[in-house]
Design a protein that fits this description.
By secondary structure, the chain is α/β, with parallel strands linked by helices. Helices cover 44% and strands 17% of the residues. It contains 14 helices and 14 strands.
């Protein structure tokens, strides 16, 4: 029985290697195998049991036996990981990629970079291409406008059904049971607001992004810090903006000057918002930090080189990218399960916050 049993296994392996069987394909029924190889059904079952033990196939009750292995990895082809980010050449994104590239280069994996420009349509197009070509072994994705309902969630689920692991980085869709690697964004918002409170500020405004989940979490941390000290959360002093409005903040300077007029401090969604707020207020003759203290989030280059160097909450972006790549390699190559990791942020103090003299 041994040789006949091995013939069935060899046939399945050869079909995978030749690209005629892929993840999710159904194998012939036991009866068909028995007739094709002129063996007993007991021999067929033994072959399928061995293939199951090796993780190549899986049986589904009442349905049959299906290919379960990631066929690109099984056939020894180059491991290719797709990294899909909203942007790649600005702000914190080059540092995220640097961390990833260091790992993938060391492991001999090919890195395929895609850019969505934070657009739902581009995210959908890229995901559909991954599904159509089955050309990648794993996907590391920064979600698009994760604070809003997304029509692309079923595409991420389809990738997983195909045996292509998905890991979210930097942001995530909370509706999907997919692990993510990010900073603890709620904690970041909390640290920013708590620092201003410790410096004697009670009239603390905020600028947060409405279309990104990170904005909601950072706002939650901001409100947590204020309520912890029984400071009223003044809704009229919290400005919600979307991605396009963040880019064009300086064109809407009147809105920010009016809404934050009575505040002595402001927590900004990120360093980009903080950097632009400094420019808006300085042009209006308002002194930073004497008249308005500002805290950003991410500790990017913008924070360091702003005309008033910004106090900011550090986002460990290079470590974040490196960890995401390590987890994906471990999953694809060693079948290790991926888990969510949220890094603890830390405050970096510079010149944009003033301690109030009455503290």
């Amino acid at each position: 029985m041994g040789k006949k049993y091995e013939n069935i296994i060899s046939w399945v392996e050869h079909e995978i290697e030749e690209g005629r069987l892929h993840h999710g394909d159904k194998l012939p029924a036991e009866k068909e195998f028995a007739e094709q190889f002129e063996v007993s059904r007991q021999t067929v079952r033994r072959a399928l049991e061995d293939l199951t033990d090796r993780g190549i196939v899986e049986g589904r009750r009442g349905s049959g036996t299906y290919i379960s292995v990631n066929t690109r990895r099984y056939t020894g082809k180059e491991i290719r990981v797709a990294v899909m980010l909203t942007y790649v050449d600005t702000y914190i994104f080059p540092m995220i990629l640097r961390g990833m590239e260091a790992v993938f280069s060391k492991e001999g994996c090919a890195l395929q970079i895609s850019v969505t420009d934070n657009a739902v349509e581009k995210e959908r197009m890229i995901l559909k291409e991954f599904i159509r070509t089955q050309s990648v072994d794993g996907v590391i994705a920064e979600t698009v406008k994760s604070g809003l309902p997304s029509p692309n969630m079923e595409l991420y689920m389809e990738l997983q059904k195909m045996g292509i692991p998905v890991l979210f980085v930097n942001s995530f869709y909370k509706e999907l049971d997919i692990p993510h690697i990010s900073m603890d964004d709620q904690r970041a918002g909390y640290l920013a607001a708590r620092h201003l409170i410790e410096c004697g500020h009670t009239k603390i405004g905020g600028i947060f992004k409405a279309d990104d989940g990170q904005g909601h979490l950072r706002y939650a941390g901001y409100t947590e810090a204020l309520m912890e000290k029984d400071i009223k959360v003044r809704g009229e002093k919290v400005i919600w903006i979307d991605s396009e409005e963040l880019r064009d903040m300086e064109e809407e300077s009147t809105k920010f000057l009016k809404r934050l007029r009575d505040c002595t401090a402001c927590v900004c969604y990120n360093d980009e918002a903080a950097y632009k707020l400094v420019s808006i207020f300085r042009k209006a003759g308002i002194r930073i930090p004497k008249d308005l203290s500002i805290v950003g989030i991410d500790d990017s280059g913008l924070a360091k080189f702003c005309t008033v160097p910004l106090t900011s909450v550090k986002n460990p972006v290079e470590r974040l990218g490196r960890t995401a790549a390590e987890r994906m390699v471990a999953c694809v190559c060693r079948k290790e399960e991926m888990q969510t990791i949220e890094f603890e942020p830390e405050l970096v103090m510079r010149s944009s916050v003033q301690v109030r003299s009455d503290v």
